[in-house]
Amino acid sequence: MEIKSGDTIGIIALSGDCEKEKIEQAKANIEALGFNVKLSKNIFDKNRYLAGSDEDKISELHRFFEDDEIKLILCARGGYGAIRLINKIDYNLIKANPKPFCGFSDVTALLLMIYKKTGIITYHSPMACTDFGIECNTFSQQDFFNTINGKSLCFKGSKSFKEGSANGILWGGNLSTVVSLCGQDFIPDKDFIFFAEDLNEPVYKIDKMFQQLINIPEFSDRCKGIVLGDFLDIDNEVWLDEYFNEIANRLNIPVVSGFKITHAKEKITIPIGKKAKIQGLVLKID
Fold first, then answer.
1. Most buried residue, 40, 88, 128, 252, by most Cβ within 10 Å?
2. Per-residue pLDDT at 133
3. pLDDT tens digits for range 117-126
4. CA 285, 220, 174, 182: dihedral to nearest 10 degrees?
């Protein structure tokens, strides 16, 4: 399905509470691109650090998927809260009303669970407040719509920890959020290329989180390559490189870094569940 000018984009708050100024600016900027915008009813709600109650979030998520006018659902922001929702969602309702569902960071939990439960491709992508709001970024927006509309994409990394090629669906996201799903049935049934990013995590915690995933047989058996985005504000770059070398050699798979999968301003959009290939430093998305 192509997303085009005149279509309606729904902005929904499923994690942390939102600042009114950022939401209003994001709405204005998206409308300036030629789209109509609907805001979830809970968009300005505040319950401690959350954007309202879990019940209201679930109600709005279901309503947005059932609303035929809304062609794409864009999460407002991350923070925390998405994992509270994963066992309350009606995945059959979502499967019956497929449309692009987009976000990153904490939203990774929803991206992966919706893909696992429905088979619908979801998008690790810019969000309303961070990327379409006050500090909007043209590169991120252009890549977002190119990816949503199914254009074949090719990105080149900057460093290879182990040379080689790999094929599989793209799967992953914010590392700490991926790990928070352990205990759920969340690993893909297909061979996959794992992509990851994070921020404000010391190297020993990055080690621990990767180790937690590698200890899952389904993960280590089906992971055919790793694509690394930014790990921002870490404590030791040398240790991080040493650890990624260790992973590459231990799993004997290609591991490539230097992709704009990130909490920083310029970011690429990754379709979770879509076929891709690693060839040397290049990631090609079909």
1. 128
2. 87
3. 999 999 999 9
4. 140
Residue closest to 208 by CA, chosen among 193, 198, 218: 198
Residue spans in the chain of domains classed CATH 3.50.30.60: 153-285
Residues of the chain with CATH 3.40.50.10740: 8-148
Structure tokens at 157: 């990394």
Q: Which residue has the tokens 């300036």?
A: 32
Q: How far apart are CA 225 and CA 194, in angstroms?
A: 6
Tokens of 160: 């290879």
Give me the mean pLDDT over the 230-238 stretch.
96
CATH fold of 153-285 = Glucose Oxidase; domain 1 (3.50.30)
Enclosing H/E stretch for 210: helix 203-214
Residue 38 CB neighbours (<10 A): 18
pLDDT bracket for residue 136 (50, 70, 90): confident
pLDDT at 135 over 90: no
Pick the CATH number of 8-148 from 3.40.50.1860, 2.170.150.40, 3.50.50.60, 3.40.50.10740: 3.40.50.10740
How far apart are the C-alpha atoms of 110 and 242, rounded to whole Å?
31
pTM: 0.97
Q: What is the dihedral of CA 147, 152, 153, 154, to 10 degrees?
A: 170
Of the pLDDT bands very low, low, confident and very high (cuts 50, 70, 90), residue 180 is very high
